[in-house]
Amino acid sequence: MRAMRCTRCVGAWTGLLLLLTAAVLTCTPPSTSRPTPLGPAATDTSVPPLGRTWPVGDRPPVLRGWEPPATPYGRGHRGIDLGAAPGTPVRAVAAGRVSFAGRVAGKGVIAVELPGTGAPPLRTTYEPVRASVKKGDELAAGEPVGTVEPTGSHCTSTCLHWGLKRAGTYLNPLSLLPPWLLHRGPSRLLPVIGLPTPS
Q1: CB 57 within 8 A of CB 90
Q2: Where are the beta strands (DSSP E) in 7-133?
Q3: 68 near 76, Cβ under 8 Å?
């Protein structure tokens, strides 16, 4: 009888532990060790969140966010800058076709057209990048497109400039990333008092 009560007690504590773990994992705020890549006009609802990876690293620091210009030729920042060391592999954020891989004003630029995103389709860009792909290549999400070049960056330290356009309109590239990828932080478990130590 006592063994049955003990088994029920352990079962109840195990259920409680699972509920607490689920609550902690879903409510954990993003890590504060890196800048949170969200700000004004963080995402655009006209852009489908079909990205499957960051272009560099796991959750790279955002050195400068998207600042849409008030006019076509006005001041602003037509993309985001991600901290990345020279030689860092650059990946395609989403599946697409390389529409440009070459040099513009002395720096390597790659543009990838994203099929199924309307007419005209969305196009994402990466610079400065030493390309390992060529125009016409079909890419899967996460596939390498090149490496960050040591020169050609407009950042104070080496970075990757990641852009997103539909025809002549610049959009926020972070809109391509689903919320789980934007807000991912470390998992944290709370201690549970009173449970027997596993043997």
Answers
A1: no
A2: 62-64, 80-83, 89-91, 96-104, 107-114, 122-127, 129-131
A3: yes
151-167: average pLDDT: 85
Report pLDDT digits (tens) over 23-78.
Answer: 333 333 333 333 333 433 444 557 888 899 999 998 899 888 877 777 667 676 67
The Cα–Cα gap between 142 and 147 comes to: 13
Could you give the domains of the chain? Answer: 1-30+185-199 (no CATH), 62-182 (2.70.70.10)
Write down the residue that tokens 């790659």 correspond to: 110
Q: Are strands 89-91 and 169-171 parallel, antiparallel or unpaired?
A: unpaired
Strands, DSSP E only, in 25-181? 62-64, 80-83, 89-91, 96-104, 107-114, 122-127, 129-131, 138-139, 144-148, 159-166, 169-171
0.70 exceeded by pTM: no
